[in-house]
Amino acid sequence: MKVDGVHTRTIWLNDDGWSVEVIDQTCLPHRFATRRLERVEDAALAISDMIVRGAPLIGATAAYGLALAMRADASDLNLANSTRMLLGTRPTAINLHWVVERLRDVLGRAPAQRRCELAYEQARQICDEDVAINQAIGRHGLALIEEHRRKRASGAVNILTHCNAGWLATVDWGTALAPVYMAHDAGIDVHVWVEETRPRNQGAGLTAWELGHHGVPHTVIVDSAGAHLMQRGRVDLCMTGTDRTTATGDVCNKIGTYLKALAARDNGVPFYVALPGPSIDWRIDDGIEGIPIEERDPQEVTTVVGRSPSGELTAVQITPDACAAANFAFDVTPARLVTALITERGVCPATPAGLRSLYGQPAGGIGEKALSG
Ligand code: MRU
Question: Does any ligand 1 atom lie closer than 6 A to the CB of residue 254?
Answer without folding.
Answer: yes
